[in-house]
Amino acid sequence: MILTTTAAVEGKPVHQYLGIVTGEVIVGANIFKDLFAGIRDIVGGRAGAYESTLRDARKEAFAELEAEASAKGANAVIGIDIDYEVIGKEGSMLMVTVSGTAVRI
Length: 105
What we know:
It comes from Sphingomonas cavernae. The chain has 2 helices and 4 strands; from the N terminus they run E-E-H-H-E-E.
């Protein structure tokens, strides 16, 4: 399946629009990751634990988006938007959402 943030796939006309599809993932921040991320921020290193969590959440959100598009009979999703939000008490959770338009090209 083709997944793109652009409004079209170059050289491949859209034959059918199948609707908006989404993928949402909410992950909680781990207290130990918070502690080590804070230490790394102080000494100037990268927060690898957060980067890994963010990468995994994004991959899972894209997998949900692709599964929903496939269930609609799509072979591509165009116009994908990726959003990140911190939610929960004191920003204790991260929400990753992806949305786009399922199409047949």
